[in-house]
Write a structure and sequence with these properties.
Length: about 160
């Protein structure tokens, strides 16, 4: 039986979507100062925040109001409240996700993400291990980095 390219690619897309957000919870990947049980995380977070922070999902581009947040203040982890980014480091990357060129000191950690057949650098909260997004080498000066974050994984506190 011959399978058309369209059918094959459609099936691959369906498998990728079905697997989205099904990785192991972040707490399984390290020992973080702030820890809760899975039931406590589910009770604490909205379903969307839980899927991103604890299951490594990605929110839809352009869906977060934090992408359009331009006031002075601090972006913090929606899971534990740990301060992550100063508003002075935020920039419009045009990607549809809040982007920053530098995290606050000791705010985030990174790990290698090999999901979906590519290698990327995942960014997680240094306090609770929650998945925030990924960092790329195509950002502005002075760092040249683009911390591409899921808005649902963060909160904003105006200065």
């Amino acid at each position: 039986m011959m399978i058309s390219r369209r059918t094959f690619l459609g099936g691959c897309g369906a498998l990728a979507i079905a697997g989205c957000g099904t990785e192991a919870p972040a707490e399984a990947q390290g020992n973080f100062p702030f820890r809760l049980t899975d039931a406590q995380w589910r009770a604490r977070l909205s379903p969307a925040a839980y899927n991103v922070l604890r299951r490594h999902a990605t929110e839809r581009a352009g869906s977060s109001p934090l992408d359009r947040e331009h006031r002075r203040g601090t972006f913090a982890c929606a899971g534990c409240g740990h301060r992550l980014f100063a508003s002075e480091t935020k920039f419009d990357s045009g990607t549809g996700w809040p982007s920053f060129f530098r995290p606050l000191p000791r705010a985030v950690g990174t790990s290698i993400d090999r999901s979906f057949g590519e290698t990327r650098t995942e960014v997680h909260c240094a306090n609770c291990g929650g998945h925030l997004g990924h960092v790329f080498n195509d950002g502005p000066r002075p760092t040249g980095l683009r911390y591409c974050m899921n808005g649902v994984a963060m909160t904003f506190r105006a200065a």
